[in-house]
Write a structure and sequence with these properties.
heterodimer; A: 490 residues; mainly beta; Methylamine Dehydrogenase, Chain H; 2 domains; six-stranded mixed beta sheet; B: 1072 residues; six-stranded antiparallel beta sheet; 88 strands; 5% helix; globular
């Protein structure tokens, strides 16, 4: 029965409906084939099941005489939020009065082929390359930073009253020059009141978002004891807006606490490091660039770091780390799968902090358990289209932890984002194509499940997920109609 | 500390089993309600509750099985945290006892099955199968050896479980087949292309393995599996029914709706048990069918016979004698008599009703003179109702006599210690009935006459019956009849001791001693009513809106007092206070008021007049003689009882609403104390002395979603689902229906547009207008992007009229009144509107995280609850909505209410509740902007609506102050209260001691049950569970002693058992 929204509900918010639709795009079978579907009434039969037969179990043998009837399959409409809420309020639908996890099914969407991006959700940066981006934790606010040090703020869900379609578009809100050098990472504090940027000028800055004023600088150029090379990443701690960690090409990781005293020189405030770990990832005696240092969520003391020289991830715990000779709390073992060492371009964690994902230069994403780093990776995500060719390629885990997005997708001269489903054992992936023409580098998720990506062609795109309508229809349209649109493809 | 107790316990039934639980010779029905198991016995065509067991977990499924050596069936209970345990009946103790204690089969790494947990028992009682996770079956072998069972008392009924892998991930349904050689399963599943297949497995218990069987079927329909005794399995698809076995595979178009429940029918012979050639099947539309399958050598013929309509069933249990128990989540559960061909009745007959008010979508509290009542929006789909829950006096019918046209009746005790004469007064006839001590009724022709009777009593020291009819005054001494025939028709009459007083047409009042006239008094107008009280005082109500008091003595009749009223008196009753000179005169007027005058020594006490409106039609007042109460019945639109309880007037509704007239009637041998009549019958009934919760049902077309009320009407937002089978489409229709409060009948409605879903309603400050918020739910859109705000008002000719309409960009999920403004939650925003001069203006709006579910306001704060992201605190200052604080935790909120200053109570979709605290004095800004989790606990049910109100006013000495009332999906109403600083330690310790002393079912821990359950964490609960504490009141003294003394390593309490009892009695006063 189609009216049964609850059935869809019990299927992870209508997942089944979409898969059935998506699977219509299976390779067509010739009409002469035994498995050819009849247009109106399908005729079905069973394979002979008496005695032991060698035939494969699930093959359908065609026979003229119909024994079983089946009504015409009518496509089921997707579950809608309002109806799902109604069903939840009534305690389930009639056929499935029992679903223990009613709540999680409402609005739970797990289909990778639902992403699309409209032309109105694409913004071009003129004459400068976007280098990094970051979503606010509670708003649909997107910060994009460029190679020249400009910081631009966008609203990814801007509702325009004049817009007839009444759909949100992306709109620039504000922008300022944050650094006089390239910005490599941008990060919002958990409550979105502060914004931190890390730059090629060997410093990081913390901005008050309401006034857009730099309230403090992390690092001093040319002064000993601070970063002596480009700062690759700066991150706020999840639980405290005062704790930050930054990492640099000089191989050091520095912990900052904004509650400590700093120094003020010429009216500019500089923070002092709380702890500096030099040579955090030493590779056969040589320093190597630290590509990523990120806090574990739900922790104020643990940081995961990666480097450009090998695949090792290190977990630093502030509670145990020695100030003179710091040693990591845990290190991942060497990979035995590949012949040579590949660096890790970026590391991200799942929202619950249980999983760590590392994008490696060998174009594989490795999944580690944050509690058992020593035992090596537990899962890999691969896709032939994924090419992690530069250290600018970043990855991000969705706020529900179910989807992993990574830049660097390449397919037939088009570039895009590759998304993976992290909930299943067999990895399924899709690529968001059509949105960018050059290499896609960084990606990030908003709290509402929107995805943003930047590309070397100067474009910033916002991707939305919808169960039906846009994304599904786009694939069937011809090229001219979907010009400047982006959509996901299996 | 938060104290939570039930006002109304959950009533939704999702599971039930039929087994021989208590003894091997009779059947029991065991019903599972959220966390409560109820054991019923099936006797005399009724289900009688034997016992109920509170389980400290949410029951997911219950099944019965029979270990070989046990004479009775055991039951296995699967709980929501992927655990199971068994229970059996201990014949020595006559209680439910634990069998296998809790077994955990949870696997955190696996994904839960999408069709929900399934619990299955092999028809040959070899294994039990549990399917919780995708691709994994947990097999629990049933104990076979008789020997070990007999030797140890703590006998195991089940072996340890083991898990086996199956290939099918997306399982729709599983059935255990009738296969005598090995336990086998049929699995209906969907593949990755959403095509449905059936495969079969055989379980090898010894090797702990599962083998694929050769019966398979491809590309069938999603549905339910019913195993057949012939070894195959029926698949009830969405439209077709398939039979699949090794040899036969057939299908037939039979169904119009998917089925929800089925039960094999029961043969009348208890030895043979189930008769699985015939099944009773219920579908989504609430229709019941009899399903028959006829097997021949090569084929099966299937037949579906319609039986009738009932509640939408979540479980069915066929009982002997063609009875059927229908357990329902959406409406009352019922025991039905199925039509049978032999008895030649074709209708479903309801034998027993089990009230269920689930799912409660919304509720309001309505206060009037008679106390509070809760009106809930209950039911869903076709079974929508409004339920009016009152704390009222329950009337239990003992015997019914079908009889029409009765106007009034009188009972009198004539030379007996019980009321042996009943006079039934019809329009132009009186029938007298003599009741023998054994309760046999026989007519008395001497006293029956052609006129209707006005008054009956006994005079001359109970030696004669006095009967006043419209024509004469008659005296009957048991043999002979004496009478005085009136020249004019008698309008009213009354007597006291040996004196009789009647009023005849023309306003003449005559006084008699026996039937000898002793005096008369001429009034100005006709007499409407009269009441003879002691000391020869007569109160007379006149049509000139006066009440006069006549005193009769030897000298004559004198007017001693007169009262001028504004309305015409219709019925007068004088009620004396025991042991006092004073009394109260109750006067009902022609417009539904009841006036009360207090008299002292024959004088009206000044300023003692009280007016109570009990209806709009004239009210009949009648005296009710009871041992404890001097009570007055008031019969208008609603029957009510008025009495004084510690000098406070209490007006309580009666549970039966169709009463026309009422009279007290004492007959101890029948166990009745009253007599009442309706349009169609007279009932001898027993009225209880104490009030209890009674539920009145008002059926609604469609199902109600939201409700609000003003002083005259209930405004109910309803939805209707119209389904068409052919196109498989579903239409949602929405209505605003207006119900009159007194008559509870629908007087007006407004139909909304197609695709428009009604979401919210509030009453505006002026008590007249209502604002309705809707959302358009077009089929091709994921989330609503448009909606309307509408203002309605009732016109003078009882029509509902739309006054204003305002289009908004989203669905108006919630509306509240903030001062004179309207706060609306529209999709992911909160907007403030002002209604002025017939139009709506937007004053301001603000974005909220994802989707606003509920809003609560107090003086200066607006709290918005979000679909996924907990709550946000907003303030409206200088025409600007600003965000003051927010909770950054993920929380799937369902309702929010302000608990006290800066404390917010939020309920969550998984049954948790959190109290959040706003710290507005913290020195750090980030702390001020962040809400803190103050307390968190588990309530166990999804709460749809929380309101700040109390149903029963707390008394001064109450240990707990009630604060909130929560309505849940499972039909319970919870009281959330505060135990106060001084009482908390004692109650907490008491709770702790009870946990330690009272053994729990299945060895479950009450502490764990009330723990907050987050996605990844559980944490101890800050909660005092009232239902746990109250549950010990009925326990025996030694156990109470142990609780007080802190047995089992508890803490010794500083109170006596008597104190404990009074504490619990105090706590019990929170709810009826």
């Amino acid at each position: 029965m189609n009216m049964d929204i609850g059935k869809a509900l019990s299927d992870v918010g209508g997942l089944r409906d979409i898969t059935s639709r998506a699977n219509n795009s299976l390779p067509p079978t010739p009409d002469s084939s035994p498995a050819a579907p009849s247009k109106k009434h399908k005729l079905y039969d069973f394979l002979e099941s008496r005695g032991k037969i060698e035939t494969p179990r699930k093959r359908i043998v065609f026979e003229k005489k119909p024994l079983l009837h089946k009504p015409v399959h009518i496509q089921k409409k997707p579950a809608q939020l309002c109806k799902e809420l109604l069903i939840r309020q009534l305690g389930g639908s009639r056929s499935h009065p029992f679903s223990t996890k009613t709540s999680r099914h409402v609005g739970g969407r797990l289909n990778l082929e639902t992403y699309y991006s409209r032309p109105s959700e694409c913004l071009m940066m003129l004459n400068q390359l976007p280098f990094c981006l970051g979503f606010a934790n509670n708003e649909s606010l997107l910060a994009v930073c460029t190679e020249t040090g400009a910081l631009e703020l966008f609203d990814s869900r801007f509702y325009d009253r004049q817009n007839e379609e009444n759909q949100p578009s992306a709109r620039r809100i504000h922008g300022w020059l944050a650094h006089n050098n390239a910005i490599f990472s941008v990060n919002f504090s958990k409550d979105d009141s502060l914004l931190a940027t890390s730059s090629g000028d060997q410093t990081s800055k913390v901005f008050d978002l309401s006034t857009q004023q730099c309230i403090t600088r992390l690092g001093r150029r040319g002064v000993d004891g601070y970063h002596s090379h480009s700062v690759k990443q700066v991150n706020f701690c999840n639980d405290s807006p005062y704790n930050l960690v930054s990492c640099s090409r000089d191989g050091s990781i520095i912990f900052w606490d904004m509650r400590t005293h700093g120094i003020t020189i010429d009216g500019e405030h500089f923070q002092k490091p709380v702890l500096r770990i030099r040579k955090a990832h030493e590779n056969s005696g040589r320093d190597c660039s630290i590509t990523s240092a990120t806090w574990l969520p739900q922790s104020t003391s643990q940081v995961i770091s990666s480097c450009s020289a090998n695949s090792a991830l290190k977990l630093w715990d502030l509670r145990t780390v020695h100030t003179v000779r710091p040693l990591p709390a845990a290190t991942t073992p060497e990979l035995t799968t590949s012949k040579r060492d590949f660096g890790v371009t970026n590391v991200c964690t799942s929202p619950d902090g249980e999983r760590i994902y590392a994008a490696s230069r060998d174009s594989i994403i490795y999944e580690y358990s944050s509690r058992h780093l020593n035992s090596g990776f537990c899962k890999t995500y691969k896709d032939p289209r994924l090419r992690i060719s530069s250290f600018y390629v970043k990855l991000a885990c969705s706020p529900d932890g179910a989807t992993l997005a990574c830049g660097g997708g390449v397919q037939d001269k088009t570039s895009g984002v590759v998304v993976f489903d992290t909930t299943r054992n067999c990895s399924s992936s899709a690529m968001l194509t059509g949105g960018h023409t050059k290499d896609v580098t960084a990606v990030d998720w908003s709290s509402e499940g929107q995805l943003a990506s930047i590309s070397d062609d100067g474009s910033v795109r916002v991707w939305n997920s919808s169960l039906h309508g846009s994304a599904a229809n786009l694939r069937e349209k011809n090229f001219s109609e979907i010009f400047y649109w982006g959509f996901s493809e299996k | 500390m938060t104290y939570v107790t039930y006002l109304h316990k959950p009533s939704s039934i999702r599971n039930a089993v039929f087994c021989k639980f208590v003894n091997a010779s009779s059947w029991n029905v065991i019903v599972a309600k959220v966390n409560c198991l109820e054991v019923y016995s099936y006797e005399n065509n009724r289900l009688c509750l034997i016992t109920s067991a509170n389980i400290f977990a949410k029951i997911v499924n219950v099944k019965a099985f029979k270990p070989v050596s046990s004479p009775t069936d055991h039951i296995i209970v699967a709980t929501d945290s992927f655990r199971y345990f068994t229970l059996f009946w201990d014949a020595n103790d006559n209680t439910v006892s634990n069998g296998i204690k809790i077994q955990d089969c949870s696997e955190r790494s696996l994904r839960e099955s999408q069709s929900g947990p399934l619990l299955l028992v092999d028809p040959f009682q070899r294994v039990i199968c549990l399917h919780v996770y995708q691709g994994l079956l947990t097999i629990i072998p049933i104990f076979k050896s008789k020997k070990r069972f007999m030797t140890s008392h703590n006998n195991p009924s089940l072996h340890d479980n083991f898990s086996v892998r199956i290939q099918e991930l997306n399982v729709v349904d599983i059935a255990m087949l009738y296969n005598s050689s090995r336990p086998s399963l049929a699995v209906l599943y969907k593949d990755s292309k959403s095509i449905v297949h059936l495969s079969t497995y055989k379980i090898n218990v010894r090797e702990q393995e599962i083998d694929e069987d050769d019966v398979v079927c491809h590309d069938i329909e999603e549905g339910k599996l019913i195993p057949s005794e012939n070894g195959g399995v029926f698949v009830f698809g969405e439209m077709y029914v398939y039979y699949i076995s090794k040899d036969i595979q057939v299908s037939k178009l039979l169904l119009t709706y998917p089925i929800t429940a089925f039960s094999p029918s029961i043969s009348n012979d208890p030895e043979t048990g189930l008769d699985s050639s015939i099944y009773i099947v219920a579908d989504e539309s609430g229709m019941l069918y009899k399903f028959k399958a006829l097997f021949t050598d090569e084929t099966v013929s299937m037949e579906l016979e319609k039986l009738g309509e009932s509640s939408i069933a979540s479980c069915l249990i066929a009982l002997p004698d063609n009875h059927l128990f229908v357990g329902s989540h959406f409406n009352n559960s019922v025991l039905l008599q199925l039509p049978s061909i032999t008895k030649n009745n074709h209708k479903l007959e309801i034998l027993q009703n089990f009230v269920n008010i689930a799912p409660i979508s919304d509720f309001i509290i309505d206060d009037d003179q008679t106390g509070s009542s809760i009106i809930t929006c209950s039911g869903a789909y076709k079974d929508g109702t409004l339920r009016i829950i009152r704390n009222s006096i329950n009337i239990e019918n003992v015997a019914l006599i079908e009889m029409e046209g009765i106007k009034d009746f009188f009972s009198v005790s004539f030379r007996a210690n019980y009321d042996n004469y009943i006079f039934l007064s019809l329009i132009c006839e009186t029938r007298a009935i003599i009741v023998s001590p054994e309760g046999v009724f026989s007519a008395n022709h001497d006293l029956s006459c052609e006129e209707s009777t006005i008054f009956v009593s006994t005079i001359y020291g109970n030696s004669q019956i006095l009967q006043i009819t419209t024509k004469e005054i008659r005296l009957f001494d048991g043999k002979k009849l004496h009478s005085w025939i009136s020249p004019m028709s008698i309008t009213c009459g009354s007597s006291f001791a040996d004196n009789v007083c009647v009023a005849v047409a023309g306003g003449l009042i005559l006084f008699f001693e026996g039937i000898t006239e002793v005096g008369r008094y001429q009034c100005d107008t006709e007499v409407s009513s009269l009441c003879f009280t002691e000391e020869n005082v007569v109160y007379v109500g006149l049509w000139s809106a006066d009440i006069i008091m006549l005193t009769y003595c030897q000298d004559g009749i004198s007017l001693t007092h007169s009262l001028k009223l504004t309305d015409i008196p219709r019925s007068i009753v004088y009620s004396q206070k025991y042991g006092d000179d004073g009394g109260t005169l109750y006067v009902s007027t022609n417009n539904g008021y009841v006036l009360m005058f207090n008299f002292q020594n024959g004088q009206v006490i000044e300023h003692s007049l009280r007016r109570n409106q009990l209806g709009v039609a004239p009210i009949i007042l009648k005296h009710f003689d009871s041992k404890e109460k001097n009570a007055i019945f008031a019969l208008g639109e609603k029957p009510q009882l008025m009495y004084y309880e510690s000098d406070k007037l209490v007006i309580t509704p009666l549970s039966c609403t169709e009463m026309l007239n009422i009279s007290s009637y004492v007959n101890p041998s029948l166990g009745v104390n009253m007599l009442y009549c309706t349009n169609s019958y007279i009932s001898l009934a027993k009225m209880s002395e104490i009030r209890s919760l009674n539920v009145q049902t008002v059926s609604v077309k469609g199902f109600p979603r939201r409700i609000c009320s003003n002083s005259l009407f209930y405004f109910v937002l309803c939805m209707q689902l119209e389904e068409s089978i052919g196109t498989q489409e579903q239409r949602l229709l929405s209505f605003l229906r207006v119900y009159e409060k007194n008559t509870l009948s629908e007087i007006a409605h407004h139909k909304f547009n197609e695709y428009e879903m009604v979401e919210s309603i509030i009453l505006m400050n002026d008590d007249k207008r209502v604002v309705v918020g809707t959302g358009f739910n077009f089929p091709d859109q994921d989330a609503p992007d448009s909606g309307r705000l509408m203002v309605f008002e009732m016109t003078s000719d009882n029509n509902i009229e739309m006054q204003a309409e305002h289009k908004v960009q989203g669905s108006v999920n919630t509306l509240v009144l903030y001062k004179h403004l309207i706060v609306a939650g529209i999709n992911a925003s909160v907007c403030i509107f002002e209604y002025e001069h017939g139009t709506m203006h937007v004053r301001n709006s603000i974005r909220t995280p994802t989707y606003t579910i509920d809003i609560s306001v107090n003086q200066d704060e607006i709290i918005a609850a979000d679909l996924m992201k907990s709550i946000t605190v907003l303030q409206f200052i200088d025409d600007q909505l600003i965000e003051v604080a927010r909770d950054y935790h993920p929380l799937w909120a369902t309702s929010v209410e302000i608990l006290s200053e800066r404390k917010y109570f939020v309920t969550e979709a998984d049954g948790n509740a959190v109290i959040l605290l706003r710290d507005n004095v913290s020195p750090q800004l980030s702390d001020r902007k962040k809400l803190r989790w103050y307390k968190k606990f588990y309530l166990g049910e999804l709460i749809n609506k929380t309101r700040h109100c109390t149903f029963i006013e707390p008394q001064d000495k109450s240990l707990v102050t009630p604060q909130l009332l929560c309505a849940t999906v499972d039909g319970s109403l919870m009281i959330v209260g505060d135990a106060g600083m001084s009482n908390t330690p004692l109650l907490l310790q008491l709770q702790d001691n009870i946990r330690k002393v009272i053994p729990s079912f299945g060895g479950l821990s009450h502490k764990e049950w009330k723990e907050y359950r987050g996605e990844n964490e559980t944490s101890p609960s800050d909660l005092i569970d009232g239902s746990l504490i109250e549950s010990i009141l009925g326990l025996r003294e030694p156990i109470l002693n142990e609780i007080v003394n802190g047995g089992h390593e508890g803490t010794k309490l500083d109170i006596s058992v008597q104190d404990l009892k009074s504490i619990i009695e105090n706590l019990e006063k929170l709810h009826p």
